[in-house]
């Protein structure tokens, strides 16, 4: 697939750089997560892009934790991020931390002060904002702007030593308070934060801002192509300014469009709220757009990479349909998932002319799409479970399943004919009685009968009980983050439905967490880690067909 498509704009840039001998033919990218949450599928896009670009041109990719914000960061997130990148199929060249560069970044700041290009500011955040001006009117110079180099050096050192309280002073770059680009109006370089850092502990109480940390970290690592999302376009002149004034390795920043999916939110801050307020069971809740949630839901790494490839690299923001992600996993699982029988809404069916106590081991193909998948044995007896919806007492026309006097094939087994039912006091069917045609056995049918419907079943005495978790989209609107009001008011209250008494074929008792199956006629399911020796738990990964696409097809 990737061989045939034309080059994306980043590949074009890399090829031009290689052709012109820039960076000595070297390609080094980086993936720079802030360890303040679990990765989501948007990050997967950035990972596939950064690692993929380097792989394609014999380059390498660093994993750099952008850990300059001590309050929100945690090693739990560092560990989960590493696990998710590896699971997606990528391995980094070096594991690095922006916090490892704190001393170097401090020295860079000192160098800029000495050049008269940075100063210590006394004003509060509000005062700084008021002096900033607007996009159409220039800002005003702070009185601190004229401080001497000596005074700035002294104050900056005392900031580091902890002589000032949070917010009391900042370090600013001295650029141009009338610059059309607001980011160039004497941006902040350092702030005071007396906070414990997950790696540097209490060593520092001043922390570099993103703009002063990111580009310099790229440069320290000799990153050749620093790829980020579109919102950083206005930061690029500042990125370049610091590198130029410091006269350090000229890394370059390139921007592409974020990946957005409909019916979900894609920001760690929002996802964290869902977790902390208990709207979901955790970062890996199968309804979450996190890598860990998708993994638990049954998504494969290949299906996520495939989505990223299909979406491509764009220069304009847009929202991708969730159904495209579902298409990617469905397509893969159709090829790779073994078929199994699971009855999610069971009703008992007794075959009155099948010998009581007799058990046959019937042969069933594991996956008709994969000739190498082999087959398995299914126990068959006179008492089965079938889906309640597969029997109707007064069926409409074109209902090709079971009803009184109607015939249907039991998958991998026999043709049966509906005879009668038992009901409880409320009129609900408790048992269906049927007869079977002994000569209609699948694989050796000489009954001469043809039937239109085939239904799935399990043998009551042999079936295993399972809990099945059915998921729907987490939000009721396409773009919850853009709606007015709290995005959490658009949570879909019916996004999880738990079926606690499903019956599955007995072989599934051997399945391990993460194993994936197609439950015939029902969808693709994977074994959840909540599974115990007592109870097997399945997550519905995706339905067999796009329910929405089916509706539009019907309308045609
Ligand atoms: P969030 O808002 O979810 O916290 P972020 O951009 O703050 O996202 P970072 O940890 O800073 O998260 O991101 C690491 C890298 O992943 C950055 O290069 C960022 O541009 C990229 N990234 C984050 N979200 C997306 C997305 N939706 N699509 C593509 N790339 C993304
Ligand atoms: Mg961020």
UniProtKB/TrEMBL annotation:
<keyword id="KW-0030">Aminoacyl-tRNA synthetase</keyword>
<dbReference type="InterPro" id="IPR020059">
    <property type="entry name" value="Glu/Gln-tRNA-synth_Ib_codon-bd"/>
</dbReference>
<feature type="binding site">
    <location>
        <position position="66"/>
    </location>
    <ligand>
        <name>L-glutamine</name>
    </ligand>
</feature>
<keyword id="KW-0067">ATP-binding</keyword>
<comment type="subunit">
    <text>Monomer.</text>
</comment>
<dbReference type="InterPro" id="IPR020058">
    <property type="entry name" value="Glu/Gln-tRNA-synth_Ib_cat-dom"/>
</dbReference>
<feature type="binding site">
    <location>
        <position position="210"/>
    </location>
    <ligand>
        <name>L-glutamine</name>
    </ligand>
</feature>
<dbReference type="InterPro" id="IPR011035">
    <property type="entry name" value="Ribosomal_bL25/Gln-tRNA_synth"/>
</dbReference>
<feature type="domain" description="Glutamyl/glutaminyl-tRNA synthetase class Ib anti-codon binding">
    <location>
        <begin position="337"/>
        <end position="436"/>
    </location>
</feature>
<dbReference type="GO" id="GO:0006424">
    <property type="term" value="P:glutamyl-tRNA aminoacylation"/>
</dbReference>
<feature type="compositionally biased region" description="Polar residues">
    <location>
        <begin position="369"/>
        <end position="379"/>
    </location>
</feature>
<dbReference type="InterPro" id="IPR022861">
    <property type="entry name" value="Gln_tRNA_ligase_bac"/>
</dbReference>
<feature type="binding site">
    <location>
        <begin position="34"/>
        <end position="36"/>
    </location>
    <ligand>
        <name>ATP</name>
    </ligand>
</feature>
<keyword id="KW-0436">Ligase</keyword>
<dbReference type="InterPro" id="IPR020056">
    <property type="entry name" value="Rbsml_bL25/Gln-tRNA_synth_N"/>
</dbReference>
<dbReference type="Pfam" id="PF00749">
    <property type="entry name" value="tRNA-synt_1c"/>
</dbReference>
<protein>
    <recommendedName>
        <fullName>Glutamine--tRNA ligase</fullName>
        <ecNumber>6.1.1.18</ecNumber>
    </recommendedName>
</protein>
<dbReference type="GO" id="GO:0005524">
    <property type="term" value="F:ATP binding"/>
</dbReference>
<feature type="binding site">
    <location>
        <begin position="266"/>
        <end position="268"/>
    </location>
    <ligand>
        <name>ATP</name>
    </ligand>
</feature>
<feature type="short sequence motif" description="'KMSKS' region">
    <location>
        <begin position="265"/>
        <end position="269"/>
    </location>
</feature>
<feature type="domain" description="Glutamyl/glutaminyl-tRNA synthetase class Ib catalytic">
    <location>
        <begin position="27"/>
        <end position="334"/>
    </location>
</feature>
<dbReference type="Pfam" id="PF20974">
    <property type="entry name" value="tRNA-synt_1c_C2"/>
</dbReference>
<keyword id="KW-0547">Nucleotide-binding</keyword>
<dbReference type="InterPro" id="IPR014729">
    <property type="entry name" value="Rossmann-like_a/b/a_fold"/>
</dbReference>
<keyword id="KW-0963">Cytoplasm</keyword>
<feature type="domain" description="tRNA synthetases class I (E and Q) anti-codon binding">
    <location>
        <begin position="454"/>
        <end position="528"/>
    </location>
</feature>
<dbReference type="GO" id="GO:0004819">
    <property type="term" value="F:glutamine-tRNA ligase activity"/>
</dbReference>
<feature type="short sequence motif" description="'HIGH' region">
    <location>
        <begin position="33"/>
        <end position="43"/>
    </location>
</feature>
<feature type="binding site">
    <location>
        <begin position="40"/>
        <end position="46"/>
    </location>
    <ligand>
        <name>ATP</name>
    </ligand>
</feature>
<comment type="similarity">
    <text>Belongs to the class-I aminoacyl-tRNA synthetase family.</text>
</comment>
<feature type="binding site">
    <location>
        <begin position="258"/>
        <end position="259"/>
    </location>
    <ligand>
        <name>ATP</name>
    </ligand>
</feature>
<dbReference type="InterPro" id="IPR000924">
    <property type="entry name" value="Glu/Gln-tRNA-synth"/>
</dbReference>
<dbReference type="Pfam" id="PF03950">
    <property type="entry name" value="tRNA-synt_1c_C"/>
</dbReference>
<dbReference type="InterPro" id="IPR001412">
    <property type="entry name" value="aa-tRNA-synth_I_CS"/>
</dbReference>
<dbReference type="InterPro" id="IPR050132">
    <property type="entry name" value="Gln/Glu-tRNA_Ligase"/>
</dbReference>
<dbReference type="InterPro" id="IPR049437">
    <property type="entry name" value="tRNA-synt_1c_C2"/>
</dbReference>
<feature type="region of interest" description="Disordered">
    <location>
        <begin position="360"/>
        <end position="379"/>
    </location>
</feature>
<dbReference type="GO" id="GO:0005829">
    <property type="term" value="C:cytosol"/>
</dbReference>
<keyword id="KW-0648">Protein biosynthesis</keyword>
<feature type="binding site">
    <location>
        <position position="229"/>
    </location>
    <ligand>
        <name>ATP</name>
    </ligand>
</feature>
<dbReference type="GO" id="GO:0006425">
    <property type="term" value="P:glutaminyl-tRNA aminoacylation"/>
</dbReference>
<dbReference type="InterPro" id="IPR004514">
    <property type="entry name" value="Gln-tRNA-synth"/>
</dbReference>
């Amino acid at each position: 697939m990737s061989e045939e498509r034309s080059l994306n704009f980043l590949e074009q840039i890399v090829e031009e750089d290689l052709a012109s001998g820039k960076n000595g033919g070297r390609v080094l990218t980086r993936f720079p997560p802030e360890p303040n949450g679990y990765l989501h599928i948007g990050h997967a896009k950035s990972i596939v892009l950064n690692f993929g670009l380097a792989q394609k041109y014999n380059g390498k990719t660093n994993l750099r934790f952008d850990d300059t914000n001590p309050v929100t960061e945690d090693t739990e997130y560092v560990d989960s991020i590493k696990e998710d990148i590896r699971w997606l199929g990528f391995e980094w060249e070096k594991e690095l931390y922006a916090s490892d560069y704190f001393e170097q970044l401090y020295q860079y700041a000192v160098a800029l002060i000495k050049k008269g290009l940075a100063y210590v500011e006394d004003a509060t955040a509000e005062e700084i904002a008021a002096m900033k001006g607007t996009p159409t009117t220039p800002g005003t110079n702070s009185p601190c702007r004229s401080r001497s180099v000596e005074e700035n050096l002294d104050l900056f050192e005392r900031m580091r030593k902890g002589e000032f309280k949070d917010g009391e002073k900042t370090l600013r770059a001295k650029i141009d308070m009338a610059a059309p680009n607001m980011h160039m109006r004497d941006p902040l370089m350092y702030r005071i934060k007396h906070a414990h850092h997950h790696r540097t502990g209490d060593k520092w109480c001043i922390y570099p801002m993103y703009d002063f940390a990111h580009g310099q970290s790229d440069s320290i690592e000799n990153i050749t192509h620093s790829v980020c999302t579109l919102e950083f376009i206005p930061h690029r002149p500042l990125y370049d300014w610091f590198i130029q004034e410091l006269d350090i390795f000229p890394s370059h920043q390139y921007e592409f469009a974020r990946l957005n999916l409909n019916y979900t939110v894609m920001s760690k801050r929002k996802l964290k709220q869902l977790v902390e307020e208990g709207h979901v069971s955790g970062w890996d809740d199968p309804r979450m757009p996190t890598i860990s949630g998708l993994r638990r839901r049954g998504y494969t790494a290949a299906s996520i990479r495939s989505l990223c490839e299909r979406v491509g690299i764009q220069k304009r923001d847009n929202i991708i349909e969730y159904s495209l992600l579902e298409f990617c996993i469905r397509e893969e699982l159709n090829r790779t998932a073994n078929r199994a029988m699971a009855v999610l809404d069971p009703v008992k069916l007794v075959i009155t002319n099948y010998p009581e106590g007799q058990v046959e081991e019937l042969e069933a193909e594991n996956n008709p799409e994969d000739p190498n998948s082999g087959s398995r044995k299914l126990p068959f007896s006179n008492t089965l479970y079938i889906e309640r919806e597969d029997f109707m007492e007064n069926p409409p026309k074109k209902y090709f399943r079971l009803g009184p006097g109607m015939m249907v094939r039991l998958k991998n087994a026999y043709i049966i004919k509906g005879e009668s039912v038992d009901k409880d006091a409320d009129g609900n069917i408790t048992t269906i009685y049927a007869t079977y045609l002994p000569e209609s056995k699948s694989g050796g049918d000489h009954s001469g009968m043809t039937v239109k419907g085939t239904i799935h079943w399990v043998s009551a005495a042999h079936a295993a009980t399972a809990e099945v978790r059915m998921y729907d989209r987490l939000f009721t609107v396409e773009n919850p983050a853009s709606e007015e009001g709290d995005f959490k008011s658009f949570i879909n209250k019916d996004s999880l439905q738990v079926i606690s008494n499903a019956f599955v074929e007995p072989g599934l008792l051997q399945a391990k967490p993460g194993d994936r199956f197609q439950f015939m006629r029902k969808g693709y399911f994977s074994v959840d880690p909540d599974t115990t020796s007592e109870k097997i738990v399945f997550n519905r990964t995706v339905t067999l067909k796009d329910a929405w696409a089916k509706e539009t097809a019907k309308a045609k």
